[in-house]
Amino acid sequence: MIKSKKLSKIKNLKHGFFNRVGGKSKNIYNSLNCGPGSKDNSLNIKKNLQIVKKKISKSAKNIFLLHQIHSNKFVYIDQKSVFRSKPKADAIITNQKNIPIGVLTADCVPVLIFDENKNFIAAIHAGWKGAYKNIITKVINFMIKKGSNPRNIIAVIGPAISVKNYEVKEDFKRKFLKKDRQNNKFFKIKYKKLYFNLPNYVKSCLIKNKIKNIESINIDTFNTNNNFFSARRALKLNHDDYGRNISIIMLN
Q1: Confidence band (pLDDT; 50, 70, 90) for 20?
Q2: What is the structure's pLDDT at 125?
Q3: Which of 15, 23, 143, 153 is the Cys-Cys partner for 31 at CB 3.0 to 4.6 Å?
Q4: How far are the Cα atoms of 39, 149, 200, 250 from residue 205, in angstroms, in the given order?
Q5: 153-192 pLDDT per residue, tens
Q6: How much is the mean pLDDT over the chain?
């Protein structure tokens, strides 16, 4: 489990960016696969989620997860919230205690957010599609409507695929340049191949929303030595599926 230096200083907060180590799954899912959307044995996934929950807090409620769809949709959990099934969304915001909220990634960017004044937390799954569709802005704007001030918000960008391993096509770049010519700075050409810096793009989305207190974990999920699940690496190895890393935050 990787921890944020900034969030670790806060007493009433638990969090963690979990890699693939320490779970029950086998074969390509070895071992802490937390993705119910994968083809892994569902019982092992449940056991893995219990392992994660215990590491966050023994008294926590079940981890609140989403049916992630690479969107700009988010859910807000208050004391009246009732969910009969997993909401289709890519971010969770809450001010409730003892509810660990989590997002699943396998190269996409997990972002954990804390407002130390209003005691709000958020977990965001920011793949390129969600980031492009302004999921960061939507979450921050909602928090501001609820009384947050960007000055009091801490944002932590978790482990994700690095620019050197995120090759993209020209039409991908055109899409981003059409949105904003300034986005050119997130692209890099090396040996005639085009690469995209997703973590830096996500960081720029936070900065645009006046978030200054930002921490970047800077761990590449594609790099085997870091022990994270990676969709891109699985594709390169001709695996027919891949596990999911979980990133968690909870008020206590």
Answers
A1: very high
A2: 99
A3: 23
A4: 33, 16, 9, 23
A5: 999 999 999 999 999 999 999 999 999 999 999 999 999 9
A6: 97
- Residues in the chain, total: 252
Q: DSSP string of the chain?
A: -B--HHHHT-TTEEEEE--S-S-S--GGG-S----TTSSS-HHHHHHHHHHHHHHH-TT----B--B--SSS--EEE-TT---SS--B-SEEEE--BT--EEEEESSSEEEEEEETTTTEEEEEEE-HHHHHTTHHHHHHHHHHHTT--GGGEEEEE-SB--GGG-EE-HHHHHHHHHH-GGGGGGEEEETTEEEE-HHHHHHHHHHHTT--EEEE---BSSSGGG----HHHHHHTT-S----EEEEEEE-
Cβ(135)–Cβ(74) below 8 Å: yes
Summarize the confidence of residues 38-57 as an average pLDDT: 97
Portion of the chain with pLDDT greater than 90, in percent: 99
Domain boundaries, the chain: 5-160+212-251
pLDDT at 75: 98
Per-residue b or e along 142-176, where b marks 16 or more CB atoms closer than 10 Å to that residue's CB: bbbeeebebebbbbbbbbbbbbebbebeeeebeeb
pLDDT at residue 94, rounded to an integer: 98
Q: 30: which 2 tokens?
A: 């070895």
CATH of 5-160+212-251 given 3.10.350.10, 3.40.50.1000, 3.30.450.20, 3.60.140.10 = 3.60.140.10
